[in-house]
Write a structure and sequence with these properties.
The structure holds two protein chains of two kinds.
Chain A: E1 4-6, E2 11-14, E3 19-25, E4 32-38, E5 45-50, E6 55-57, E7 60-65, E8 70-75, E9 84-91, E10 95-97, E11 101-106
Parallel strand pairs in A: 2-11
Antiparallel strand pairs in A: 1-3, 3-8, 4-5, 4-9, 6-7, 7-8, 9-10, 9-11
Chain B: E1 4-7, E2 10-13, E3 19-25, E4 31-38, E5 42-51, E6 54-57, E7 64-66, E8 76-78, E9 87-94, E10 104-105, E11 109-113
Classes of the chains: A mainly beta, B mainly beta.
C-alpha cells in the first residue's frame, strides 16, 4: 500500500462548482499535513497547511481526520484558475507526496 | 531573492554518462532536498540534507550522490545514467522539516537518458 494515496482524477467541473478531494495516509505517526498545487510543467507550490482543527483560506477548506487517516480539500466557487494538480503531502520524518489529483475547471 | 534555482532546465544524456544537477538557494534555509517526479508516481525523495555537511538518503537514493559543502548549494550527481533515471528533478528548501514549514521548489530539471 502506498504511504499517501490520492484519486488521480481527472475531476472536470464547471465554474462555480464545489469540488472535494480526499487523501489517505498509511502511517498513523504522520505529524504534519499539507496541500500543494502544481500547474502543468511547473514546480509545486504550497496551497495550505492542514491543521488538526481544520482550517479555511478563502474558498479553500482543509480538514484532517486522524482516526480514519485522511485529509481533505474542499474548493468552493471554482475558478478557471483553479485548474491544476493538487498534491497531498504528509510528513513523518521527511515529506511524502501523493501522486496528485488533477482538476480542470471549465467555463 | 532568487529563491531556489536549478540548472540546467533540460538535459539529454546517453546511458552510462555522468552529470551533476545544480541547486542553489539564497534564503539561508537549513533543509534541502531532491525529488524526482514520474507520471503517476508523485514526487519521490532522493536525498536530503538538514545542514551543511549532513546528508541522508530518501526513498529512492540508488544511482545518485549528494554533498552539502555550503548552506546555499546542494548538487545532485548521477554516477552512471540509466534510462530509468529519465524524469523531472526538483530541488527544494525550507527553514526546517516539520510542522508548518513551507518547502520552496526550484523550477525543475527535465532529464532524458537515452
Amino acid at each position: 500500500r502506498k504511504e499517501v494515496e490520492q484519486d488521480p482524477g481527472p475531476f472536470n467541473v464547471p465554474e462555480g462548482a464545489t469540488v472535494a478531494f480526499n487523501c489517505t495516509y498509511s502511517n498513523s505517526a504522520s505529524q504534519s499535513f499539507f496541500w500543494y498545487r502544481q500547474d502543468c510543467r511547473k514546480e509545486p507550490k504550497l496551497l495550505m497547511s492542514v491543521y488538526s482543527s481544520g482550517n479555511e483560506d478563502g474558498r479553500f477548506t482543509a480538514q484532517l481526520n486522524r482516526a480514519s487517516q485522511y485529509i481533505s480539500l474542499l474548493i468552493r466557487d471554482s475558478k478557471l484558475s483553479d485548474s491544476a494538480t493538487y498534491l497531498c503531502v504528509v510528513i513523518i520524518n521527511d515529506m511524502r507526496f501523493g501522486a496528485g489529483t488533477r482538476l480542470t475547471v471549465k467555463p | 531573492n532568487a529563491g531556489v534555482t536549478q540548472t540546467p532546465k533540460f538535459q539529454v544524456l546517453k546511458t552510462g554518462q555522468s552529470m551533476t544537477l545544480q541547486c542553489a538557494q539564497d534564503m539561508n534555509h537549513e533543509y534541502m532536498s531532491w525529488y524526482r517526479q514520474d507520471p503517476g508516481m508523485g514526487l519521490r525523495l532522493i536525498h536530503y540534507s538538514v545542514g551543511a555537511g549532513i546528508t541522508d538518503q530518501g526513498e529512492v537514493p540508488n544511482g545518485y550522490n549528494v554533498s552539502r559543502s555550503t548552506t546555499e548549494d546542494f548538487p545532485l550527481r548521477l554516477l552512471s545514467a540509466a534510462p530509468s533515471q529519465t524524469s523531472v528533478y526538483f530541488c527544494a528548501s525550507s527553514y526546517s522539516i516539520g510542522s508548518y514549514n513551507e518547502q520552496f521548489f526550484g523550477p525543475g530539471t527535465r532529464l532524458t537518458v537515452l
